[in-house]
Amino acid sequence: MTGSGWMRSIGTARTFVGNAMGGLRGGSNLASWVVAGSLAYYLWVKPARELKKEQEDRAALAAASDAYRYVEKRKPIPDPQETGLIYGKKRDIETKKRED
């Protein structure tokens, strides 16, 4: 690119970004983004944060109220046998075929 070529590409990029943001320029563009950001914060972000904090507070209160309750800390290990019996004989493929 020549000296003015990169300036043109920067100008094109700025135009694209400006059009993508609604085509507003200057103070009105900034004001519209501030209004949109404020609305988004008060309608979505703030209520979500308050709900999460409230749920954490409830969980902490529930945990504090019953300090001796049992809490499962590990996932149970599934029984690897096909029959589901603890001491049962594993069924093999040939036995299944004979039953069918």
UniProtKB/TrEMBL annotation:
It comes from Zostera marina. Residues 89-100 have a biased composition (Basic and acidic residues). Residues 79-100 are annotated as: Disordered. This is Uncharacterized protein.
